[in-house]
Amino acid sequence: MEEKSDKTKKIYGKIKKKYTQKSVKKRIEALFLDNIGKVITREQIIKAATDLKTQKQPENWHQRLSELRTDDGYTILSWRNRGWLRVEEYLMPSSEKRSIAGKRVRPDKDTWQCVLQRANYSCEWAEGNEICGLKEGAVDPVGGGRVKLTPDHKNPHSINPDADTKDAQQWQALCGRHQVIKKNYWDTNTGKMNVYAIIQSSTSSEKEIIFKFLLDYFGYVQDKAGNIHKLEIGKQ
Ligand SMILES: [Zn+2]
User: Fold this and answer.
1) CB 3.0-4.6 Å disulfide test: which of 24, 27, 81, 127 passes with 19?
2) What confidence score (pLDDT) does residue 59 get?
3) How many angstroms does the Cα of residue 215 sit away from the middle of ligand 1?
4) Measured in angstroms, how far is the CA atom of residue 172 from the centroid of ligand 1?
C-alpha cells in the first residue's frame, strides 16, 4: 500500500528560523512550507505560532490550521487521515494548493450587525432542536478557547451572492467549532453530510467498525491472516 512507503520515510520536521509573519495563520503556513513531507508536532506548531513580541501562545491555532486547509486549499494530513501519524502530528505532503471555488462573500458591516442581534450574539448552529448558543467571548466547553462568532453563508451557491451581502436572512453566526464542522463535514452543494470527511475524522476503532461493515456489505470476508476474499455466493 502507498501509505506504507510513506511510513518508512517518517521524518520529523524542525523549526528552522524565527517566524515573524504578522498572523498566527501565516506563521503556521511558513512552518509547514519549511517542512514539506515532514511530520510537524503540536508543540512545534504552537512554538512557531507564538507571537515573538508578546510571547502570547495562540489558543486558536487549531482553527488557523483548519483554515489553511479549507480557505487556502493546502493538504495537511493528520492521524485522522493517515493511520501512521500519531495524534497531534501533522504533515503537508506538498506546497500545492487546491483551487478554492470562487471568492468568499461576506455580509457587509450593517448586515452582520443585524445577524448578530438576531442571534443574540451567540452561535446559531442547530442540530435537530438543539441550538449551540455559545456566546461571543465565552469559553467553548468542548473545543476550548474563546468563542469568536463569524458569518456563515447559508447557501454559498446562491444565484446572486453579491445581493446576499445585504440580506441578513442569508447568513448565520457560527462559533469556530461549528464553522469547522460546517466546512469539513457538510457538503453545501448537496445539503448532505460529507460522509467521507466524517469517516476520515473518526477514530481508528470507529474506522474498523465501518471497514467491517463495508466488507459485509460488499460480500467480502477477512481471514485470520488479514487477507480479504470475495465471498463466492452459490459456489461450494
Ligand atoms: Zn457553535
Assistant:
1) 27
2) 78
3) 36
4) 11
